[in-house]
Amino acid sequence: MKLFDVYPLFDIEIVSGKGCHVYDNKGTEYLDLYGGHAVISVGHSHPVVVKAIDEQASRLMFYSNSVINPLQQRLAEKLGKVSGYDDYQLFLVNSGAEANENALKLASFHTGKSRVIAFGKSFHGRTSAAVEVTDNPKIVSPINDNGHVTFLSIGDIDAVAHELSKGDVCAVIIEGIQGVGGIRIPSDDFLRLLREECDRYGVVLILDEIQSGYGRTGRFFAHQYSGIRPDIITVAKGIANGFPMGGVLISPDFTPSYGQLGTTFGGNHLACATAIAVLDVFENEGLVDNAALTGSYLLSQLQGLPGIKEVRGRGLMIGIEMEYPAKDLRRRLIEEEHVFTGAAGTNIIRLLPPLCLTMAEAQEFITRFTRLLNEKA
Ligand SMILES: Cc1ncc(COP(=O)(O)O)c(C=O)c1O
How far is CA 206 from CA 145, 194, 253, in A? Predict the structure, then answer.
């Protein structure tokens, strides 16, 4: 059988990783400023996480959601404490799209309505409702295109208020910081106004923190810079450092009922044990503070380098908008400087490293990146 060929690949086979480095099958070491797409939070193969997986796998990997699983409760308590949402409720799933799918479904159940407001350049996943609220017609198939969504511009609060006043909207969904859209930060004021308008019209505010959450921006959630509290927050990516998992944090205003949501694999024992170990490492190693520190260092060092049009971001979620298409630069970063980075659109390089990035590693990235930029200038 052949693989369904949907991914354009770099000709590199990564076989191991440690901290902020990965290694290919020829033994070459790469500095990882991409974190496997914002997934590696505590560092590759962190010993605490490996031990937790090992111990849990030899005890019990999975049993169904029809029996008590104390690991789910332990994770919920820890996550509530670390994130500042200890009064919220947690529903566990397997991916980011699934988290958004359930968030939108809950909003629709809660309000009895079905229209959603989303924003230009948004990305919320590839499943049915999640892809419908994603602003990219190329990945929305006819079966997903059900007319539930109105896309507005980030910052245009008058347009939001106008749409909400029509009375048929169940949810507004917005990323804490847009990732795929090119590291675009909704202003703190805009988030506060969104909260006000959602309150005025009884609309559910969903913050997609799948990429921007879990400490990446120097706060546990990016929206916490604005001081608002959304009704629903979705998480995935860094939650289990590469073990597939997602979660929906749900305000106490929502009352669950048996069977309303469900999943076979979501919240399984192995995933929960991994996610608990991840949060232990967050606390023991001060990773949220580290993301703030190394992130602001990177942001300051990147300003003014040759060929850079704009640098945007918070913490370790950084977009470098080049004056020219970035594809060749990214390729040369990998092949010549042995550095992995991400991309967004044609001109933007995305930095999404593990949150344990050290100052020395950040400096090393700047040295290697500057070398290429100077050659090109
Ligand atoms: C903001 C955001 N939401 C949702 C998703 C979808 O997550 P997943 O690929 O785990 O379904 C992503 C993935 O990149 C994302 O960045």
Answer: 20, 10, 14
Nearest partner of 269 among 136, 75, 44, 99, judged by Cα: 75
Measured from the CA of 180, which atom of ligand 1 is nearest? 16
- Give the model confidence (pLDDT) of 231-286 as tens digits: 999 999 999 999 999 999 999 999 999 999 999 999 999 999 999 999 999 999 99
d(CA 373, CA 188): 33
User: pTM, whole model, 2 decimals?
Assistant: 0.98
Q: Using one digit for the tens of pLDDT, what is the confidence trace for 116-165?
A: 999 999 999 999 999 999 999 999 999 999 999 999 999 999 999 999 99
Tokens of 223: 């929206």
Ligand 1: which atom is nearest the Cα of residue 95? 10
| Integer Cα distance of 119 and 191 in angstroms | 13
Q: What is the pLDDT of residues 93-116, one digit of tens each?
A: 999 999 999 999 999 999 999 999
Same fold, 14-38+286-376 and 47-285: no
Query: What is the C-alpha separation between 187 and 191, in angstroms, rounded?
Result: 6
CATH code 3.40.640.10 for 47-285: yes
Q: What distance in Å separates the CA atoms of residue 106 and residue 102, rounded to the nearest whole number? A: 6
Report whether residue 97 contacts ligand 1, using a CB cutoff of 6 Å. Answer: yes
Q: Which residue's alpha carbon is at the smallest distance from atom 4 of ligand 1?
A: 124
Q: Tell me phi and psi for residue 374, to 5 degrees.
A: -65, -35
- State the angle between helix axes of 359-376 and 287-302 in degrees (0 to 180), rounded to the nearest 10: 20
Question: Where residue 191 falls among pLDDT bands split at 50, 70, 90?
Answer: very high
Tell me the best of 211, 214, 263 to mutate to test the pocket of ligand 1, counting ligand atoms within 8 Å of each CB and taking the most.
211
The DSSP line for 22-40 is EEETT--EEEESSHHHHT-
- Which of helix, strand or coil describes residue 17? strand
Closest CA to 267 of 127, 52, 65: 65
Q: Write out the CATH class of domain 14-38+286-376.
A: alpha beta
Determine the distance separating the centroid of ligand 1 and the alpha carbon of 306, expressed in angstroms. 32
Task: State whether residue 90 is helix, strand or coil.
Answer: strand
Whose structure tokens read 């901290």? 19
Domain range list for the chain: 14-38+286-376, 47-285
Q: Is the C-beta atom of 95 inside 6 A of ligand 1?
A: yes
